[in-house]
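Support request, please re-run this one:
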Amino acid sequence: MQAISVKCKLQVPIELRSEIDSTLQGFADACNQILEVAKRENCWNTSKLHHKVYKPVREATGLKANHVCQAIRRVIGNAKTVKQVHKFRPTSINLDVRTFQYIEDLQTLGVTLMCGRVKFKLSIGNYQLALLKGQSPTAATLNKTKHGDYYINICVDLPTNPTGKTPKVIGVDLGRRDIATASTGKSWSGQKIQATRERYSKVRANVQSKRTRSSRRLLRRLSGKEQRFQKWLNHNISKQLVRDAKLVGASLAFEDLTNIRESLNQKPRSKAERRRSNNWAFYQLRLFIGYKANVAGVSVVFVPPAYTSQTCSRCGHIHPIKGKSYRNGKVFKCGHCGFEHDADINAALNIAALGKSVSLPESPGMSCQLEGQMSLFLMIQI
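Re-run finished. Output below.
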């Protein structure tokens, strides 16, 4: 099973907006009170913290019992995922099976607020309807946007198709100039996202020097726009990659880029280059591909990144002089066999060949230096 979140818009009458807002404010106040106690007494265990804060928080906020329990879990969860937990704002509330109910026949949602259980109509399309069909969700998050709209993210479990062995592998080379390049020849340019980041970076530099309340609001707004654009782009790329792989019955192979930022930051680089590398959202793309492939029944494998861009995909030759490469920008020209190709597609073809060695170990080995790298990688994995 694959758990995903289905975002649905709520139709909220004007007279009920204040009820939702008061519940969100109460939940935020509860989280902030719980956070103060957790910090003061250095208590980050859910059960122990529950005994310390449950009664006083419920009396102070007027929240329902389950809301207080969810607030405790929110504080503990945030403390585990971020280095420093900041003040909670009244923008969302966690719900469980006791505080919300999805009614499929009526396409309505029952939500427990501070005033009691209230039903809301859902404003959703065919995509959400298909995902929610036959589901009995037990967890959700109610959100309020900065524009005053209300959404609920409903967690559902989707059945996954079993993945089998396949001799077909599509290699994908990830980068900054081209976000992704497949061994099929398809690529997704990174020029637009790079230009967007550069523009926002210049605006942020000008705004940060002012240090006013309005400038801080503008910074948050700019950050949200940039993140939403990056997320939209990664969703589109991952969707197309998984669709193409499923269409031909192939696996997807990627370089294992774990700790790539740390290794890059150790090298002497300019401030601008360091910022561009740190903004590279390859891990988000990897997560999106992972869950989409899981639902579609497409297997995903990871291979060592060493020499994939320096090796000739036709003859397997690597430049004999250490520190030099046959790659020059976007062009790869092998000095051994004369093969000339797009450098990113050449790297993607090498990744595909390595991916086949992972998905089908019984396939013929690679007659090049990459074979040694692959063997070392498999030994580490075992």
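The first strand starts at residue 2 and ends at 11. Residues 2-158 form one domain.
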